[in-house]
Amino acid sequence: MEADWEFEVGPDAAGVAAPVIEAHWSGFVDLQRAPELAEHLPETAQFPALAEALVKLNAADSPVWTSKCDYWPRLEANEFDPDELDAPPDCTAHATGCFIDLLPKSNQQWALPEMAEKTCKRICGFLNAVPLRCCRADLVIRRAFIFPDGMDLGITAYLTSCGESPAAAAKTLETALAAFTDAF
After folding, report:
1. Separation between Cα atoms, residue 71 and residue 165, nearest integer Å
2. What distance in Å separates the CA atoms of residue 57 and residue 66, rounded to the nearest whole number?
3. Residue 79, Cβ neighbours under 10 Å: how many?
4. CA 94 to each of CA 97, 107, 173: distance values in angstroms, whole numbers, following the listed order
């Protein structure tokens, strides 16, 4: 499985500020307290494997919790790069993807950027060892509003897959999402 990470915490060359994770946004559902609600989220209705991943990532023994996610049942050809998914030409007709915003359970967990970087490197190392083609995970370290008194760090995980059919792309994404969840 392909996996990589990056920092996106400051303004870009044009001075545009990087996106920020809003932990307690208006549609926030606390899956740490009510994991059964994961299967009722609109994002998981089309992709039940996302609900399973959210339950695991919000479990008591998980080092993270989630604040937001989305699922894209169909990606256009210009929204993914088959080479970055290690995809043979016959498996690029259909693509799908999702994202999950991940936040640390402790405000000391990723207190320094190097700590979040270390987590991303470990997860990418685990995922790169998974023998799975036609998919990838991109981890983006971002600023996050978690606690009311300041800015912290979070990670947005983007997972993308492709296949010769929509069902094949979804099955690969399901497998990739399970591997990603196991990495934590």
Report:
1. 17
2. 7
3. 11
4. 11, 40, 12
* Beta carbons of 155 and 32 less than 8 angstroms apart: no
Number of domain units in the chain? 1
161 bridge partner residues = 96, 135
**Cβ atoms of 93 and 136 closer than 8 Å:** no
| Cβ pair 102, 54 in contact under 8 A | no
Cα separation, 121 vs 124, whole angstroms:
5
pLDDT tens by residue, the chain, 184 residues? 999 999 987 766 566 777 899 999 999 999 999 999 999 999 999 999 999 999 999 999 999 999 999 999 999 999 999 999 999 999 999 999 999 999 999 888 998 899 999 999 999 999 999 999 999 999 999 999 887 766 799 999 999 999 999 999 999 999 999 999 999 8
In terms of DSSP bridges, do strands 64-72 and 151-163 run parallel, antiparallel, or are they unpaired?
A: unpaired
Do residues 85 and 134 touch, judged by C-beta distance below 8 A? yes
